């Protein structure tokens, strides 16, 4: 049986990805690997806290255990995917790449919402990268929602969703599409209704992973 590995930076999203994998990757064995200090260390000093080396160690453990692909479930670490793929020799997928492609296809005025600057920066960079690849000019509005991360970290999911929801409603008035930079923000999207698409990464990313896995399976003799 094909095996893939998710690398997570927060335990809160593991049940979401486990459920999505059961739906979209029913014949795939899934491994979940976690380093829940990476996001905090990215905010301090990624080099000094050896984030790249830690991701490589997790990726190597996944490959040694039989995984034929690795998926980063966190946008904050997406910038490490290309180098890690070269080192491991297997696909290293960014969970937010499919979301970025969808956003670029929907419109040129894109609002990006995050609860941490360490996630906002790589998500905005990914959107610009995918827009350039598609040959589509985009204008990005970037917003960090104050107090939302503190709310969810203290267990106040409802408070987090209210703060993020208010930002969605405000930015939807002048933008073609809203991008939520963190997988953990998906609940906030479900709580509001606006006249533009509000994109989250988990399902789009897992669907793309299923496409990649299908390609790998077809390539295997």
Overall number of structural domains? 2
CATH class of the largest domain: Alpha Beta
Spatial gap, N to C terminus: 14 Å
- The percentage helix is 40-55%
Biggest sheet statistics: 4 strands, parallel
Which topology of the largest domain does CATH recognise? Rossmann fold
Summing up helix and strand content along with how strands pair, one would put the structural category as alpha/beta
Strands, total number: 8
Helices, by number, come to: 10
Radius of gyration: 17 Å
Uncertain runs with pLDDT below 50, 5 residues or more?
A: none
Average pLDDT reading: 94
Strand order of the largest sheet: 2-1-3-4
* Strand residue percentage: 15-25%
Q: List SSEs in N-to-C order.
A: EHEHHEHEHEHEHHEHEH
- CATH architecture annotation name of the largest domain: 3-Layer(aba) Sandwich
- What is the global morphology? globular
Helix and strand layout, with pairings?
Blueprint: E1 3-8, H1 14-24, E2 29-34, H2 38-44, H3 51-64, E3 67-72, H4 81-88, E4 92-94, H5 97-106, E5 109-114, H6 117-134, E6 139-144, H7 148-153, H8 157-172, E7 177-180, H9 186-190, E8 197-199, H10 201-219
Parallel strand pairs: 1-2, 1-3, 3-4, 5-6, 5-7, 7-8
Helix pairs in contact: 1-10, 5-6
């Amino acid at each position: 049986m094909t095996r893939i590995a998710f690398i997570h930076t927060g335990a809160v999203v593991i049940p979401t990805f486990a459920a999505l994998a059961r739906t979209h990757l029913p014949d795939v064995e899934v491994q979940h690997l976690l380093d829940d200090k990476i996001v905090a260390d990215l905010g301090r000093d990624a080099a000094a806290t050896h984030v790249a080396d830690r991701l490589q160690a997790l990726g190597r453990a996944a490959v040694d255990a039989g995984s034929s692909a690795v998926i980063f479930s966190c946008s904050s670490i997406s910038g490490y995917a290309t180098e890690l793929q070269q080192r491991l020799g297997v696909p290293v997928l960014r969970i937010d790449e499919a979301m970025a492609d969808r956003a670029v296809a929907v419109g040129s005025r894109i609002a990006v919402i995050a609860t941490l600057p360490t996630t906002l920066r790589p998500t905005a960079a990914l959107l610009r990268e995918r827009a350039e690849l598609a040959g589509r000019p985009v204008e990005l509005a970037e917003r960090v929602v104050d107090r939302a991360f503190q709310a969810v970290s203290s267990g106040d999911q409802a408070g987090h969703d209210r703060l993020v929801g208010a930002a969605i409603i405000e930015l939807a008035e002048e933008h073609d599409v809203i991008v939520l930079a963190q997988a953990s923000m998906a609940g906030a999207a479900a709580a509001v209704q606006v006249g533009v698409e509000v994109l989250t990464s988990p399902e789009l990313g897992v669907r793309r992973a299923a496409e990649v896995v299908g390609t790998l399976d077809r390539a295997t003799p």
